[in-house]
Amino acid sequence: MAAVKPEEISHPPMDQLQGLEYCIDSNPSWAETIALGFQHYILALGTAVMIPSFLVPVMGGSDDDKVRVVQTLLFVEGINTLLQTLFGTRLPTVIGGSYAFMVPVISIIHDPSFAMIEDPHLRFLSTMRAVQGALIVASSIQIILGFSQIWAICSRFFSPLGMVPVIALVGFGLFDRGFLVVGTCVEIGIPMLILFIAFSQYLKNFQIRQVPILERFALLIATTVIWAYAHLLTASGAYKHRPDLTQRSCRTDRANLISSAPWIKIPYPLEWGAPTFDAGHAFGMMAAVLVSLVESTGAYKAASRLASATPPPAHVLSRGIGWQGIGILLNGLFGTLTGSTVSVENVGLLGSNRIGSRRVIQVSAGFMIFFSMLGKFGALFASIPFPMFAAVYCVLFGIVASVGLSFLQFTNMNSMRNLFICGVALFLGLSIPEYFREYTIRALHGPAHTNAGWFNDFLNTIFFSPPTVALIVAVFLDNTLDYKDSAKDRGMPWWAKFRTFKGDGRNEEFYTLPFNLNRFFPPS
């Protein structure tokens, strides 16, 4: 038997992911672009509906209030996505709502000064204004860190090895949004999961007019089929005598969004009234802004790979964080109940349908703005049951996580040092947030429980986030443990050329600002 050659058992590292149909600056036909953009809009609805659906009732808000918050959140998401794709990192990323802001927002909701208000609607408005004020103040963190290039300086301590657990846990860290939610209605969740995998992977070579329809539009087709099936089950009375939780998860008519939505409503700043400001609320919210910054950093790295672009240089990454801070400021001004971060599920969809086009994401932003103003139509799509979104998340979050693991190809994984850092950061990144989550469920408050509420919110928010814990552990270990003699093992020779804008000639193609704006904002 002939000896096996080394190249037959190994794969050379590759700067850009291969096998994509369209990369960041190439575009499908306009008809396909519009359909693909609508698909990203449908996917973004999951988080945009879930967050207000949980928070608004706790605040004392009605179904009308919930619909207005969902519409406002989608409207601001569309604006922020356009700003990010035009002037930020310019990567094909949807900027959506963030679960990282739930801890400080819930803390504000339970503030005794609001809890004692008897009128539910007045309590809702007072709480909303307090959240707005905290978001407006906290947004300054990302604006300053981003536009001053401080985050670019911080990112020089990152290496491919250090980024592996961060990017991986951007996906894996959202496991509780996956099958745990699918399990609340398995009769539609599991068929959705099976159908989505079948269309996007097993039937991906099925073509009509040389277009792989099933792979490219797997989400739209599977959603249409299972949504119709769910509506049939609802109409036939299949859930009539089932528990309330099952009915809320499975029925297509329990969200009360369509009946409560106005036909036309244009969101505008300060529509809830003048924001109120409290130092304790703002400080707790700053922790969520820092978590959003870390999670978005990992998501931007993943998006660049799935768009077949080079890793964003430090200058570009910091610029994107600055514009994300502007987005959180808009969240505060409009009143969305949450801040902004990169939508991880939409990043995963880039890999699932192999379309990394920036224009597709910009079209999806147009759909967000358009349907947020046409209330009834937007509410129709927003009534898709949550387990259907969760089924797709099981695939898309996994894709993003695997992109993080792909950065291991630039490191030496025969090094015990690297194995130690990667393993410990991944394990603690999952284990510590899980401890904080379980503790909070049992005790009804986080492990940090002192008389200083702002301190509690800050610590609990930071350590609730798997990517943030992973970043703290991985970057600390990577820059203190035998770092002088391990540059090659860490992947630094490969990483170095992407640190600066001019370090690689492809950066200009991917990240140059439009309208010749680089004349006024020269890259470093």
TrEMBL record:
InterPro entries: NCS2. Signal peptide: none annotated. The keyword Membrane applies. It is a multi-pass membrane protein. It is found in: Membrane. The keyword Nucleus does not apply. The chain crosses the membrane at residues 38-57, 93-109, 130-151, 157-175, 180-199, 219-239, 360-382, 388-407, 419-436, 458-477. Keywords: Membrane, Transmembrane, Transmembrane helix. GO terms for cellular component: membrane. One of its GO terms (molecular function) is transmembrane transporter activity. Belongs to the nucleobase:cation symporter-2 (NCS2) (TC 2.A.40) family. This is Nucleobase-ascorbate transporter 2. It comes from Psophocarpus tetragonolobus (Winged bean).
